[in-house]
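Section 5.1 Outputs to date
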Amino acid sequence: MEEADRLADRIAVVDHGRAIARGTADELKERVGGNRIELSVADPGQLATARETLAWFAVGAIETDAEARRVTVPVSDGPEALRQALGRLAEKGVTVRDAGMRRPTMDDVYLTLTGRRASGSDRTDDTAAQVQEAAR
């Protein structure tokens, strides 16, 4: 997906052999939401509380990576959402190890539009070939 983001003028997102979205990388990213709060907690036992607290800010699916103790939340308010989220987490006693704001990646676009990751066992050879074709 990163290759398509860097090299393609226009990208088609294909799900089960059908194009479900087309546009430039920026257009597709804007379609799924402009920013993501991404943070990690110091204590793995606080991950569920962090997820529940951040759900209030979410405008899409929240991702949790238990191994990395990371929560990623799509938001619409940008930096103001991050400021408010950190305040609420502090009120709940959640110790944040690292926090930041980022734009969505093409992997985020694929996940949002299809409901599954584009990498690993979910990614078919057909999907990989179409992404490479789009990057040409």
